[in-house]
Amino acid sequence: MESPNLGAANIAQLLLGAAWIPMWFFLNLYLQQVLGYGAFEGGAALLPLTVAIMVLMVFVAPRVINRLGFKTPIVGGLLLLAAGMAALSLVRPDGNFAADVLPASLIAATGMALAFIPSLGTAISSAKPEEGGLASGIVNTSYQVGSALGLALMAALATSQGADRLGNVQALTDGYSAAFLGAAGIALVGALVAAALLRVPRPPAAEQEEAEEQVAVAA
């Protein structure tokens, strides 16, 4: 099961998980430990993000794929995710949900939805039909591994910037901001990798034309 697109899609999924999961973790911490939300309030505040992802994945991402193919949504989605994370890194100790969290998180959700479905589809479609199940398992493993590694790295980064100083909202905000910015960097790397490694299948008409030209030359 050798395919450049299979490998590139797995790398994209790994980096996507490494950027996305830390955002959920530290966004929840920011809501509760800095803005003072309770556990229920913090969960409810993430509902717009969850609904946006569901709607985008079910109704928008498939249409974008049909129109643009796999590569463009993957690269564009990771860039949007990076932009959303970068915006979240501007959170303030005296911030509020409407200004500091909601717009940036919806940008990140749009990027996640646009990148996740096509990168998963690329991995599965790049394998032989009889190896589809194996390809699906590998790409899901890549996402899970990336999620764990990304969360561990961003937790270390946040702690080094003050996220372990409970009760000090400025230090906590600085730590969470660093984690969001680090996750933005991971998403940006993912976009660059996808842009460099993913191959766009040539249209059948172009392949047929090239084959006819080769036959003509050989004759």
Fold and architecture overview:
This protein has helices at residues 4-34, 39-45, 47-68, 71-88, 97-125, 132-163, 169-197, 204-218. It is mainly α. The protein has one domain (4-218): Growth Hormone, Chain: A (Up-down Bundle), CATH 1.20.1250.20. The longest helix is centred in the last third of the chain and has 32 residues, at 132-163. The two termini are 35 Å apart.
SS content category: mainly alpha
Name of the CATH class: Mainly Alpha
Beta-strand content estimate: under 5%
Largest sheet: none
Stretches where pLDDT falls below 50 for ≥5 residues? 202-219
- The tally of structural domains comes to 1
Task: Tell me what the CATH architecture is.
Answer: Up-down Bundle
The SSE string, one letter per element, is HHHHHHHH
Please render the helix and strand layout as text:
Elements: H1 4-34, H2 39-45, H3 47-68, H4 71-88, H5 97-125, H6 132-163, H7 169-197, H8 204-218
Provide a quick synopsis of the model:
84% of the residues lie in helices and 0% in strands.
